[in-house]
Design brief:
Chain B: Its main location: membrane. Chain B: This is ABC transporter permease. The complex is a heterodimer of chains A (265) and B (287). Chain A has 265 residues and is of the alpha/beta class. Chain A is built from eight helices and nine strands. Chain A has a six-stranded mixed sheet, with helices on both faces. Chain A has a three-stranded antiparallel sheet with strand order 2-1-4. Chain B has two domains: 55 residues; 200 residues, MetI-like (MetI-like fold), CATH 1.10.3720.10. The chains are: A alpha/beta (265), B mainly alpha (287). Bound molecules: adenosine-5'-diphosphate and magnesium ion. Adenosine-5'-diphosphate (ADP) binds next to strand 1, strand 2 and helix 1 of chain A.
Chain lengths: 265, 287
């Protein structure tokens, strides 16, 4: 095991392997992945495309099935963890239903999970406030900007109070200005709620700014090349990105990415 | 206003061409009459006569319009000479057949997307069913149903349904499959059941596809109902009007019935379009 999490382990991977059988032969998406994620950590996965970031996140969410190794979430199998509503998943596209209002979209998981009407309304109100979308509940998705839609999709993932939030390049499709603001808001949200967050990105500044732990990955076969524990404080104003510490971590991430690539040559 | 002008222009051109064609096609009869009576006719005398014949090869637009007016407004709706009476007979078979066809189409589509065996087996049969000419299969349906004591409305509705279920199956299969992998994965993360996935995602996502299919389906239903009236020599319905018109060479009556059918089809498609707009707006899917 490479390191210790901040709290008790929430996600644990040991010798994790995942191979896709395709028509061009097997694709080794994950090879010998070992990782411990503690409660309340903010973990970023960074690496070039095709290195298995999405696959790892999907395996945690029981959307893919590892071919070897151990993967536990809250000490359970990913399937059991899903049944106990352990995590909320945020995809790259907001994927809101056009036929539901913003409130209706956030209500979707609550309806499926069988919350009472009153409880649904209360939770929708709470998470709308949490992502700064009060007053937009009755709007339809197309009436909102891309950034607001993505905030709504985060609210949807938060609505049922999962302890873990898995986010796969949630701001990848947004412009940099919107992205900066959403990053800042996400940090605040994380501070307030104390959730464990797994966050896929391929932006080095984004990974360094957000994370308590940065997992650097490299492709063919997808594997972890470095795990960096960030010394940055929990409170992070945007201008922390000009600090010496920040630049040093960013440098180390870049080095890790470069080292991963050298396998190709 | 901008869209009205081009439409009126096209209509005017069609009417003009129609009159020209009527003069040209009906002139022979005028010349034949004149030859028989051993008289000469000038062109100026021919033209008015071509547009006022009782049994023209091609009736002029105003003759069709007059016949339509006479048989729609000028008759009691219970009269055998009223196009409203005949139109309603056909329309009732159309609506019943459309309801059956739509219901069947939706059920088949639901089966196809949920059951692999149905996916592989139903679609080829559905396609094969549409390659058989309806004129060949309509008499058989009527004969078979007659032999078990079913006649009148129901056999026609069955032929109607036979034509209208197909666009609904094709459209609904496409619509129910329209949610992408990400949307399905999202529901999996909620542990949603197949039923919940169907009601909350697949069905609402299929609505635009359903309405597109219904418009095609309702027009096909009307064709089916009319075709269903032909082989029995039915005494009532638009198909019967077409048939009796052709027996007695009543071309004006044939054309009036054709126009009545076209107007009915346009009205049915228009009604579905209106329901579509209201429904999609209610669902928030229309902008
Ligand atoms: N469903 C799948 N079937 C086959 N190969 C896949 C599938 N999903 C991902 N892969 C392959 O696995 C590798 C890792 O993919 P992915 O996890 O999406 O990478 P990343 O998210 O880091 O860009 C890639 O080579 C990709 O082509
Ligand atoms: Mg990815």
């Amino acid at each position: 095991m490479r390191d210790q999490g901040a709290g008790s382990p929430v996600i644990e991977a040991r010798g994790l392997e995942l191979t896709f059988q395709t028509s061009d032969g097997p694709v080794h998406a994950l090879k010998n992945v070992n990782l411990l994620i503690g409660k309340g950590e903010f973990v970023s996965f960074i690496g070039p495309s095709g290195c298995g970031k999405t696959t790892f996140l999907r395996a945690i969410a029981a959307l893919e099935h590892p071919t070897a190794g151990v993967l536990t979430v809250n000490g359970m199998t990913p399937e059991e963890a899903r049944k106990s509503r352990a995590y909320g998943y945020v995809f790259q596209a907001a994927g809101l239903y056009p036929w539901r209002t913003i409130a209706g979209n956030i209500r979707l998981p609550l309806e499926i999970m069988g919350f009472s009407r009153d409880e649904q309304e209360r939770r929708v109100r709470d998470v709308l406030q949490l992502v700064d979308l009060e007053g937009f509940g009755k709007k339809y998705p197309w009436q909102l900007s891309g950034g607001m839609q993505q905030r709504a999709s985060i609210a949807r993932a938060l609505a049922f109070d999962a302890e873990i939030l898995l986010m796969d390049e949630p701001f990848g499709a947004l412009d940099e200005i919107v992205r900066d603001r959403l990053n800042e808001e996400l940090l605040k949200l994380w501070n307030r709620t104390g959730k464990t967050i797994g966050f896929v990105t391929h932006s080095i500044p984004e990974a360094v700014y957000l994370s308590t732990k940065i997992v650097v990955m490299s492709p063919r076969p997808g594997r972890i090349t470095d795990v960096i524990d960030s010394p940055l404080p929990k409170e992070r104003p945007l201008d922390i990105r000009d600090s010496r510490e920040f630049i040093e971590i960013a440098h180390r991430v870049r080095e890790g990415l470069r080292a991963g690539h050298s396998y190709d040559e | 206003m901008k869209s009205v002008l081009p439409i009126l222009t096209v209509v005017a051109v069609i009417v003009a061409l129609w009159y020209a064609a009527a003069v040209w096609m009906n002139a022979q009869w005028v010349y034949d009459q004149a030859a028989r009576a051993d008289t000469e006719v000038t062109l100026a005398e021919v033209i008015p006569q071509t547009l006022a014949q009782e049994r023209p090869v091609l009736p002029a637009p105003h003759q069709v319009a007059a016949e339509l007016w006479k048989s729609v407004v000028g008759q009691k709706v219970t009269s055998k000479r009223s196009l409203i009476y005949h139109g309603w007979i056909t329309l009732s078979a159309t609506l019943l057949g459309f309801a059956i066809g739509t219901g069947l189409g939706i059920l088949l589509a639901v089966g196809i997307i949920h059951n692999r065996a149905m996916d592989l087996s139903v679609m080829p049969w559905a396609i094969a069913s549409q390659t058989i000419p309806i004129l060949a299969i309509a008499p058989m349906i009527i004969v078979v149903m007659n032999s078990v004591g079913l006649s009148g409305l129901l056999p026609k509705a069955v032929i109607s349904a036979y034509l209208s279920f197909f666009p609904v199956v094709v459209g609904m299969v496409k619509g129910l499959r329209s949610p992408d992998a990400m949307q399905l994965d999202l529901l999996r993360t909620y542990n949603a059941s197949r039923g919940e996935t169907f009601w909350k995602l697949r069905l609402p996502a299929s609505m635009p596809y359903l309405f597109a299919s219904l418009k095609v389906g309702v027009a096909a239903s009307l064709v089916g109902a009319i075709v269903g009236e032909l082989p029995t020599g039915a005494v009532a319905g638009l198909g019967a009007r077409l048939l009796s018109g052709s027996y007695y060479g009543q071309t004006v009556q044939i054309w009036a019935a054709l126009f009545a059918a076209a107007i009915a089809a346009a009205a049915l498609v228009g009604i579905i379009g209106a329901i579509q707009r209201v429904t999609l707006r209610r669902m928030g899917m229309a902008r």
